[in-house]
Amino acid sequence: MEYKLDFKTYNEALKKNNLLGIKCKECKVYTCPPKMTCQECGGIDLEIVQLKGTGKIKTFTQTFVAPLGREGEAPYIVVLVELDEGPWIAGNLADLPPDKVGMELIGRRVKMSHKVFPGDSYSGGPAARPLFHLLEK
Amino acid sequence: MRKVAVIGTGHTKFMFNCPKTSVEMLAEASMEAIMDAKLKPKDIQAAFIGNVLGDFSEGQGMVQSFLADDIGCFNIPATRFEGACASATMAIRDAFMWVASGFYDIVLAGGTEKATAMGTALATRTFAMFGDSHYEYPAGFTFPGVFAMLAHLYAHHYNIPLQKLKEQMAQVSVQSHYYGTKNPKAQFQKEITVDQVLNGCMVTSPLQLLDCCPFSDGAAAIIITSDDIARKVTDKPVYIAGVGQSSSGKISSQYKYLPRLRAREISVKQAYNMAGVGPGDIDVCELHDCFSIASIIAVESLGFADFGKGGELWEKGETKINGKIPINISGGLKAKGHPIGATGASQVSEIVHQLRGDLVDLGRQVEGAKVGLVDTLGGDGIIINLVLKID
Predict the structure, then answer these.
(1) What are the tens digits of pLDDT across the range A14-70?
(2) Domains assigned to chain A
(3) Which 8-state DSSP code applies to residue B74?
(4) How does pLDDT run across A96-125, given as a tens digit for each residue?
């Protein structure tokens, strides 16, 4: 059985600022990032859907100690965002000084663009990730 | 299934920059365990070994096979387990099954890791491999970063001011360092203060340096056998009375339960049910305190505190040696150290000593302990729990 929406397809769309997910035709729940089966019920009757790319910040961290090869990116802000369609996805938060943010970020509305991680010796190639921007300053 | 016991333990000193190789550390811990059980290497029928990053730290895969050969257990089946930081506990659970089933009578289980050889940058990179490489790592996820996000989520979810939560988290580290001073095998033998934790450098907010366990080198091993053999070699067999294991997907996929980790609730229930005990029966617990917040989250899922109230256990001193539920009296991952492939075997070894009553002279014996719980977490989703008991 093939993936309805695999990483390569998801990633190519994300590089054009299109956030794709899957929607279960049985339980109607959205899954993003995509998986082989529905996140909620394990169902396999799925359709690819385009998500709005908007949501709110559920949690965050300002990372100062970065992994090998990414030291130049630090400090940076990692966020988990609850999409308007329901699922949570991981990404970065842009536009703010990473050392000047706090708990007030939680609940803020954001909209997605993207940024490409060029890959390293261990990553199996480049991969885009959502880059979020605050909707109201 | 038949009754299964632990009859021997071995444990190297956990440290930074150990001069020995992964295989050497594991061989030393294994021989110590074999001798503690009054056995010889030829008595061992199979080895179950946790090792996570040997490929990166030493360019060494397949440590289990070299270990078996090094200690004179020639040509026995030797299997490596990889479940990130829970690898050794996973190996022990499988070792338990093989003996409980009657297939083997005497086996070795343990683990080894030499993480400090990698240096902080590569170690941070490799530890991040236990998040999702394609959907999470591109955003710069680090392993402490995941628990940092859980800390912020926890504070918000339970409406606890972040500063108050951070003070509770600091208490976790302070207690671990206190007991570390009583454990000669611990990496850190030095007490710290709440102020030192709160003034440490920021790793990934809100986790500061002393909220985080160290990178460590070390190995630990145990001998597992059937009840009838155990009774021939020791008058204090420690039984593996219950086991549980559970897995989960990437952290974002767990959104309906966070900051609770559903896998732990499933795993510990299996272990409690199998042993016929509940959280109120546990006399001593070694739990996975990779980060200070991880301890607070863990005690709630294990049933020792209400959700949102875990930090109060440390505030009130209930996790100390004479408290309601003594936790990480070994110093925990924070002070004892966290050589990830070995940690589970180290935790089991500690509980075995607690139940045997071996720790009086070291000043960290939980008096009269008869039932112990081991809790090990790999990544943000593999959990293994073991209930150990003495008659």
Answers:
(1) 999 999 999 999 999 999 999 999 999 999 999 999 999 999 999 999 999 999 999
(2) 7-51 (no CATH), 54-134 (2.40.50)
(3) T
(4) 887 788 999 999 999 999 999 999 999 999
The Cα B53–Cα A24 span in angstroms is 38
Contact B121 A87 (CB under 8 A): no
Q: Give the integer Cα–Cα distance in Å for B221 and B34.
A: 9
Long-range CB pairs of A25-29 (<8 Å, 24+ gap) are A29/A86
Grouping H, G, I as helix, E, B as strand and the rest as coil, residue A2 is coil
B136, B144, B149 member nearest A60 (Cβ): B149
Residues of A in contact with B138 (CB under 8 A): 116-117, 127-129
Give the residue carrying structure tokens 């294994």.
Answer: B30
Q: How far apart are CA B111 and CA B63, in angstroms?
A: 9
What chain B holds in terms of domains, given with CATH numbers, is: 4-119+214-390 (3.40.47.10)
Is-contact A54 B156, C-beta < 8 A? no
Kindly report, residue by residue over B189-226, the tens digit of the pLDDT: 999 999 999 999 999 999 999 999 999 999 999 999 99
Amino acid code (one letter) for A68: L
Q: What is the pLDDT of residue B271?
A: 98
B-chain CB neighbours of A82 within 8 Å are 255
